[in-house]
């Protein structure tokens, strides 16, 4: 995840990852029904963490820290990092409200060992969730990021990655994600997430925000480049980073990867 200059493509303002997430503000949390999402994912993490004896976890690309806070509530020693200072500021506030302790750091992919130098090789688990790895532009950046995550794990530690199923997204040219609506008529916000295909695995991801304030609608759009990371690419990079055992699922319910009705790539990799 690297910051960079703005560019225009197709009339839309295009941002690099740090600027993109700094600019999202409250919308980042409003786009997701976090209570429902965390409740849905909880059995998966309970099983994985129990199977691997997890008492400590590092959440990479943590966003506003909702997963990290949930892990800390479970009694896990928790650390978390994100490239965006604005995201980390919000994460700190979420932890304060929840009354939990999390070690936060502003750090992008490849910088975890520098951000937590006393914790190298000390974590039982590392998580990288919410379709974060596709912000990495190429194989070299992906390899470096996963190698950095591996360094943070003890021998036998577990990495959990959750991305969209880009094998399916690319093959089917899936442009639109479900619309998210928040608020009530007359005071509401709609979030429309759009994927544009630029060639091979190169994508442009846009969040279109429609706001209705007292019957007056306004519109904003933010676009950032992504790379569609397919299963084979992720598995190759995980192996290069030293992960010997990798399981891939199509959902947090452990459905088979690519099963009908599934949209995710959830990878569980053991160092």
N- and C-termini, Cα separation: 23 Å
Q: State the total count of DSSP E strands.
A: 13
CATH topology of the domain at 28-165 and 229-270: Rossmann fold
* Helix segment tally: 9
| Helix/strand class | alpha/beta
**CATH architectural category of the domain at 28-165 and 229-270:** 3-Layer(aba) Sandwich
Q: What is the CATH homologous superfamily assignment of the domain at 28-165 and 229-270?
A: Vaccinia Virus protein VP39
Q: Report the β-strand fraction as a percent range.
A: 25-35%
Fraction of residues in H or I helices: 25-40%
Radius of gyration: 18 Å
Overview of this protein structure:
- The chain has 9 helices and 13 strands.
- It has helices spanning 17-24, 27-30, 34-51, 66-73, 85-98, 112-115, 139-152, 166-172, 231-240; strands at residues 7-9, 12-14, 56-60, 77-82, 103-106, 123-128, 153-164, 180-184, 187-199, 202-213, 216-227, 245-249, 264-270.
- The chain is an alpha/beta fold.
- It has a domain at 28-165 and 229-270: Rossmann fold, CATH 3.40.50.
- Residues 1-14 have low confidence and may be disordered.
- It is 32% helix and 34% strand.
- Helix 7 crosses helix 9 (231-240).
- The protein has a 7-stranded mixed β-sheet, with helices on both faces.
- Strand 9 (187-199) and strand 10 form a beta hairpin.
- It starts with 6 loop residues before the first strand and ends with a strand.
Descriptive tags:
four-stranded antiparallel beta sheet; Rossmann fold; alpha/beta; 9 helices; seven-stranded mixed beta sheet
């Amino acid at each position: 995840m690297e910051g960079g200059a703005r560019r225009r493509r197709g009339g839309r303002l295009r941002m690099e990852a740090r600027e993109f997430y700094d600019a999202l503000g409250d919308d980042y949390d409003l786009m997701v029904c976090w209570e429902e999402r965390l409740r849905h994912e909880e059995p998966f993490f309970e099983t994985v963490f129990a199977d691997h004896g997890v008492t400590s976890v590092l959440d990479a690309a943590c966003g506003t820290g909702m997963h990290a806070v949930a892990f800390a509530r479970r009694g896990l020693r928790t650390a978390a990092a994100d490239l965006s200072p604005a995201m980390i500021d919000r994460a700190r506030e979420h932890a304060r409200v929840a009354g939990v302790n999390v070690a936060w750091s502003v750090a992008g992919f490849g910088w975890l060992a520098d951000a937590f130098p006393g914790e190298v090789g000390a974590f039982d688990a590392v998580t990288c969730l919410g379709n974060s790895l596709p912000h990495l532009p190429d194989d070299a950046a992906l390899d470096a990021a996963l190698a950095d995550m591996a360094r943070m794990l003890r021998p036998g530690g577990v990495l959990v990655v959750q991305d969209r199923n880009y094998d399916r997204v690319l093959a089917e040219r899936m442009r639109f994600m479900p619309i998210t609506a928040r608020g009530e008529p007359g005071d509401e916000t709609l979030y429309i997430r759009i994927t544009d295909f630029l060639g091979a695995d190169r994508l442009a991801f846009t969040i279109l925000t429609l706001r209705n304030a007292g019957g007056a609608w306004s519109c904003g759009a933010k676009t950032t480049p992504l790379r569609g990371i397919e299963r084979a690419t992720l598995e190759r990079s995980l192996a290069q980073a030293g992960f010997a055992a990798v399981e891939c699922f199509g959902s947090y319910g452990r459905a088979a990867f690519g099963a009908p009705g599934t949209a995710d790539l959830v990878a569980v990799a053991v160092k």
